[in-house]
Design goal:
homotrimer; 466 residues; alpha/beta; TIM Barrel; uronate isomerase, domain 2, chain A; 2 domains; 3-stranded parallel β-sheet; 20 helices
Chain lengths: 466, 466, 466
């Protein structure tokens, strides 16, 4: 199963040769990872990773959801229960169960990421199977005990130039401070994610709001609340943040008068906002955040369209982020209009849009990003961070929005070892796309080299102001 | 026009060679046909087919709709009028009219199925045209008079291991009994299709309901009605059924309390349910059927999203199933939630979802099937049972749901001769897809052989419990 | 950057060779341009084009929107402000600004059209860049002063057999009359576009309506209004029109009783129709127009689904058609039903449907056009008039609707020089599509030759009754 040097390149030999040349030019570029979910404590504490199951299986909802869909229980994969009830804790047992079902991943990006990590990080070129499970477990277990496998060593080995984490607005960013205080050279920056203090329907919202106001010393008024955000954004910026991130169920925005917004906030504060008002409030806050971005220069990311926790009994047992978030039809044309009416023509603002509804690419997102100076398109996200997904992204956006209204690649992952695998996949798929344009003479090869570098490195760095 | 051995394979020679190898390994596998609309009387009575027009044209809405769209009248193709008014009855005249318009089918699967049947069943390698119409008619007419062209002989010649028909819940399954009583070796099983006794808006519903209760000796209560279904399901199961099928306008499900469901049933029974209540009742019955499947093990199929009889004047003249059913936008994420909340986590239940809205594959269906243990994805259906449709199905589902949350191929046809043609097309297109994954090193060729067998045979057999 | 003879053909050599043969057979066919937005005064007056910026940049919203999306101001591209405030007027300055940003168009059809025009019209094979800007400007400026670059000379050089313009229902068609009076051989026909007198929400509607009635001498009644349309349609037909065109926000149609329609018209006339009534009126008028087409034989085009003037501040500054129209989700199945119920089964009527929502192709449009005798599918439109867009159009419509329910190509442009470039692109992409069907043996090459001619020429000519 050793990784083939031509993987993910077009099969037609002439086109493959072009793709190979383009890829060779960008394969070694540093990784700019402007959006993801790695744990900042890894960089601060530089502890070894615990075991193969914790490294590859238990926390990875891509891995556990596939097995769950085929009847494997999450507790048997070591996923903790909210009740505290016992779950499987033997990493080898979990690993064997995963190995037994590994054939399910044929044709998926999870399989490609996993095998890229096995080979490039651990030198393993055997496929995982019930027969090889123990050998692979032993090799990985032995390797992660070595200093070369610590987070900071891997950071260098992976060629990471800069990585952004995603952090609650209430986070003290102590791990980020510790990284900076340590004198280590790695660049790790936070991202301001205020959902917990913006979404009235999030669990614990009232307490979160109280804490936000307390930690900034602001009054419980609309003006105070906005100031509190400004203060926290500044706090994040002082620690290197260049972006904010907003995960809402829809892309709805609002642009109420400040008086109406204040009245709505008062209801939200009092816990009297109904579902429609909560939704309006979230929409209003996207526009407020965009206005703050006009002032402080933070790039704004909007990740809409996921129906979170679709499976209530699974949620009751295991909590969020266990593979039960399902994409929904997502409108942008009407939803974003209030925000765009307010700030869409500002070329100094950057709002990066993501989608889980691929139909929006050619119909809405490329036309919007190909017009509004403030808009850019984030890369293919989540279920679409895959060879076919990335290909469709380019095929449905480039003709209308070009390359320069896109922002390169985001790995968006909490799986540290998959970072180089994901960037490598994106570079290969983008080079394959460019090679096809060269092969049918839509681009010259010379300019394709320039574009390959932009897609792999330049666009992300510039768009995220890194 | 002789069938090319490499048809539907990728053009790139290396990839084509892989596809050819994969296809050779599965081309001769038996046909498992777990969902379709052949007439059980064919197997019971084993009579010769009447004439070439009746075999290929008049009953085939794929064929007649294309000619109708270009101005040909259905009565001139022999389609019976509800009024009893005369229609064309000379099969040769109908055949010639079809031949005159046969160029319309260029690029369609209908053309490929038709020519596959001509060559493999009748040894005809001439293209149908006004010039060849009579010769072909004569050859087919002569052939269908021979014993080799009787349904049972073709069953063996086609290599059918098992075929499922689709039968009204009220059907006495006499033809199925006759098949079994005859001692013939062919395996023909019924499928429980209760739409006529579940959908309050179907014509004749009140009488159907009465008949259902009468034939099961159940009371006209909610409990009696559910028991009647249970009894009929058992009756079908005794005759070999392994599945139920549900064709609703939407995928809406409900999970009312039993008291509310009983009250709703009372309204339905009294003929007082309005459109919204009828819709709720259909939704409730999907969940009830899923619960019964948990008990009796019948696999449940849901075929939603067709706007039936979109053309009222055509419907008035010719009735249903005449090519005027049009797909609609279909939601699954919200629609299925009540059913999934109730039974979605049961790994012993199998609910197979179909769609006519391809946008749902990557956005909703693959994410749902890649999570819920009870869900699997049916193959590309109806308008999408085609080379491009099947390719898009794999490209938009595999990366998220893998291969093992899909269920192989359904021919879904009432055109007996097209069965081997359709399975052959599906095997070719799936092998072409796998070959592309091998060619760009997403799969090893060795595992692609295993998957090709699963897609052609194994998955259908296991998913439908055949 | 010289145009490669194999551009837009499949990379696989065997398939490319087929595409090349097909293309050679159709490359030289005359251009039938049945729908577009060229200015009839060009043909009437045959004046030279003013300057390179006016020819290629300032009036072309494909060009200006891309630069605007990257922060360039429209006034700096010479786009006039409604306020009359000064904008850039030096064509060379505008040209240089465009050159500086020309790299943005990599991968877009705009780039391909532009370079096709440079080479085939001006003999320029250098890529536009800041370095080459002045040289190219000078060459183009010199060329457009020559008689060979006048509109009528280009008409012949482009091989245009017939071109349709799009004209307001209120237009006196004086330019069309002048063309005919001039004795010039070029065939230029008008198209009846009544939006300004059909849409109560269009600015100036009341005055438009008054003018319509005045110019036809009809009474301000529903019957008079319909007669006025009939008179204007006849006026257009006398000047060569074979088609009407309707650009609505949605595809909604209505089929009210004539009494209800008259009452609705009275409200519209009085300026008392609210938004819902205005929408119903537009819907009713589509059905009325279809009925008039049954009488007078004009082909009806429906172009729905664009959210016009999405950017209000840009609209306030610069007016409509400045790149701020954004596609929307568009339903056809329910929206068209009233019209189809009324006239859909008439094989003598031709209604050509367009979409900006590609999801409708396989789900709704191909199934509708593959059934209703009155319906045909227009080519990939606007943002989708591109290599990938045209490929997706064929891949998602052919299997269900075939080729003969489509109508060839529309260039739909106001950019005169892009007409041959656009037809050339469409011919190449269609030949590439056909070549793929030949390469995998879905079509014989011989019949592909016939189809290539139909797609390039025959279908448009027949569908538009030219």
């Amino acid at each position: 199963m050793a990784l083939h040097p031509d993987r993910l390149f077009p099969a037609e030999p002439g086109t493959r040769a072009i793709a190979r040349r383009l890829y060779e030019a960008v394969a070694g570029l540093p990784i700019v990872s402007p959006h993801g979910h790695t744990d900042p404590s890894w960089y601060a504490q530089d502890k070894p990773f615990p075991d193969p199951a914790a490294l590859f299986i238990t926390p990875d909802h891509y891995a556990t959801r596939m097995l769950y869909s085929q009847g494997v229980k999450l507790q048997d994969l070591g996923v903790a229960r909210r009740s505290g009830e016992a779950v499987e804790t033997n990493p080898r047992t979990i690993w064997r169960l995963f190995a037994k079902h590994f054939h399910l991943f044929a044709g998926t990006p999870t399989r490609l990421w996993f095998e890229h990590s096995l080979e490039t990080v651990f030198g393993i070129t055997q496929r995982l199977s019930p027969e090889t499970a123990d050998v692979l477990f032993d090799r990985i277990e032995a390797a992660i005990a070595t200093p070369e496998m610590r987070p900071r060593a891997l950071f260098d080995r992976f060629g990471i130039e800069v990585i952004a984490t995603t952090d609650s607005a209430l986070d003290d960013l102590a791990h980020h401070d510790a990284v900076r205080a340590s004198g280590w050279h790695g660049r790790v920056v936070p991202t301001y994610r205020p959902d917990a203090v913006v979404d009235p329907q999030v669990s614990g919202f009232a307490g979160n709001l109280e804490r936000l106001l307390a930690m900034t010393g602001e009054a419980a008024t609309w003006a105070g609340y906005l100031n509190a955000h400004r203060a926290r954004r500044a706090f994040f910026q002082q620690r290197g943040a260049t972006a904010t991130d907003h995960g809402h169920a829809t892309a709805r925005t609002e642009n109420l008068s400040q008086a109406d917004a204040a009245a709505l906030f008062a209801k939200v504060l009092a816990g009297r906002a109904d579902a429609a008002e909560a939704d309006a409030f979230r929409g209003q806050m996207l526009t407020e955040m965009a206005r703050m971005s006009q002032d402080d220069g933070l790039v704004m990311q909007i990740h809409p369209g996921s129906y979170r926790n679709h499976n209530p009994s699974l949620f009751a047992d295991f909590g969020p982020d266990k593979g039960a978030d399902i994409p929904k039809v997502t409108d942008y044309v009407l939803a974003l209009k209030p925000l765009l009416d307010a700030v869409g023509n500002d070329p100094k603002l950057t709002v990066i849009l993501f989608t889980l509804d691929e139909t929006a690419y050619s119909r809405e997102l490329a036309p919007l990003a190909g017009h509004y100076p403030a808009l850019k398109l984030g890369p293919a996200w989540w279920f679409f961070d895959s060879p076919e997904g990335m290909r469709r992204f380019r095929e449905t956006t480039t003709e209308t929005a070009g390359f320069y209204n896109t922002v390169g690649f985001n790995d968006d992952t909490r799986a540290y070892l998959s970072i180089p695998a994901r960037h490598d996949m994106a570079r290969r798929v983008d080079c394959a796309y460019l090679a096809r344009l060269v092969a049918d003479h839509r681009l010259d090869e010379e300019e394709a080299f320039g574009l390959a570098g932009e897609l792999a490195y330049g666009l992300a760095k510039r768009a995220y102001r890194l």
